[in-house]
Design a protein that fits this description.
The chain has one domain: Up-down Bundle (Growth Hormone, Chain: A). It contains 21 helices and no strands. Helix 6 packs antiparallel against helix 7 and helix 7 runs antiparallel to helix 13 (239-251). With 407 residues, the protein is mainly α. It has helices at 2-17, 19-30, 34-62, 64-82, 88-104, 108-118, 123-152, 154-173, 178-188, 198-202, 205-222, 228-235, 239-251, 253-267, 269-288, 296-308, 313-324, 330-337, 339-359, 363-381, 389-406. The radius of gyration is 21 Å and the shape is globular.
């Protein structure tokens, strides 16, 4: 189950992360501004967050195999169609909507509910292993996409990716057993008394704190991530060299994510998350000091510190969600909370491009990234005490009595 989730998540995420390289190709081919080229990515993050509740509800009922089939079909269709894009709205529709819906069906919202029921005492570690696929995908996609675009052109590169995805998604789907689909669907049909429901979770401050954590983390990460390669090229580094450095740095997220998930089972989700926020801040600060292509050490330090913790908060956040709101409706609850990362990631990716167009520099974006990372660490630290479900039931019961009396 872990291997199947890792491979599937990695393949889907790699197709989506490749946009950081295609962004430069779009700017050169169509003459778009950085803000315009960021719109599709921003829409993608919004759609990802907005559709996460739907994906969460579907996986509670259909199971992971059917979700992977749906997602793979959408993602491969979007990739192939993107090779024929000639206008901004084409890219926004295909990448921002079609491909994003597909990738969402191959992501954490699909796999975490299944894994959290399989692994209880080592939940953080299990989620971390799957989450590390995101960093692996991000690391591999940049140099591979750069080679494809340089050798074939961006249109043919999209065709190659779409063809690969069309061949791969059915075998990926059948890595998940049909019994797992039945168990997941059966779990979704159980009574709400066996675990938390979405209405109950929404009544707790912990739900909203988790939502804020996702918003702040998305802002902090995507004020930097989408424009990393564009930033390096603007400073003067060669495209392929910068893609290789940033890609190698992103590979560090594999041990980083797994280590974070492992220690979160022992020192607590909150402390492990705060450590990763601090490490990311160091990485962003290194980028702020880069002013010329001679500063190779700073570029490597930025790539390593930022890459080491890329996605490292994911296991802590998702495992914390499972800790706080266990039950057969976890997929629905996690999907609702994931709206926050869509909001933060969309705002961050567009704001970085907009601030560059206004100032000619990424310093404002990087400064805001550090600020939002700090806000995320504070919000996460406030999640130390679990919510009291009995109190929630009592308050709801008293509210019903008051309504009856008023009527």
């Amino acid at each position: 189950m872990l291997a199947a989730a890792f491979v599937t998540f990695a393949v889907g995420a790699a197709c989506m992360h490749a946009y950081t390289v295609f962004l430069i190709a779009f700017i050169e081919a169509f003459g778009w501004t950085r803000a315009e080229a960021s719109i599709a990515y921003a829409v993608s993050q919004m759609v990802s967050g907005a559709t996460s509740p739907l994906v969460g509800m579907l996986v509670d009922r259909l199971g992971p195999r059917r979700m992977v089939i749906i997602g793979g079909a959408l993602l491969s269709a979007g990739l192939v169609a993107s090779s024929q894009a000639h206008a901004l709205w084409h890219v926004v529709t295909l990448y921002g909507v079609v491909m994003t819906l597909g990738a969402n069906c191959l992501g954490l919202v699909v796999f975490v509910p299944v894994l959290s029921r399989r692994f209880v005492r080592r939940r953080g570690m299990a989620v971390a292993i799957v989450q590390s696929a995101n960093g692996f995908a991000r690391a591999a996609s940049a140099p591979l996409s750069q080679v494809l675009i340089a050798g074939l052109g961006w249109r043919e590169a999209y065709l190659a990716q779409g063809g690969f995805m069309a061949i791969a998604f059915l075998p990926l789907a059948f890595l998940f057993s049909s019994n797992e689909c039945q168990r997941t669907a059966a779990a979704g049909m159980r009574t709400d008394d066996e675990g938390w429901t979405l209405p109950q979770a929404i009544r707790t401050p912990h739900f909203w704190l988790l939502l804020l954590v996702y918003v702040f983390t998305g802002l902090g990460s995507f004020l930097v991530a989408l424009h990393q390669l564009a930033f390096a090229v603007t400073v003067g580094f060669k495209e392929l060299y910068a893609a290789e450095v940033l890609g190698l740095g992103a590979f560090l997220s594999l041990p980083g994510v797994i280590l974070t998930g492992w220690i979160s089972d022992y020192i607590g989700r909150e402390l492990s998350a705060v450590i990763t926020y601090g490490t990311s801040i160091i990485g962003v600060a290194c980028a702020m000091f880069i002013t010329s292509p001679d500063q190779h050490l700073l570029l490597w330090l930025h790539a390593c510190f930022f890459g080491l913790t890329w996605g490292a908060r994911g296991p802590a956040i998702t495992a914390k969600t499972a800790d706080l709101f266990p039950g057969p409706r976890l997929g629905t609850i996690l999907g609702a909370i994931t709206i926050g990362t869509g909001i933060g990631s969309a705002a961050g990716s567009w704001l970085a491009g907009w601030s560059f167009d206004r100032t000619g520099s990424y310093h404002v974006a990087f400064g805001l990234s550090i600020f939002f990372y700090a806000c995320g660490s504070v919000a996460f630290w406030m999640l130390r005490r679990p919510p009291a479900r009995r109190v929630v039931h009592l308050q709801a019961h008293e509210g019903d009595k008051n309504n009856d009396a008023a009527q």
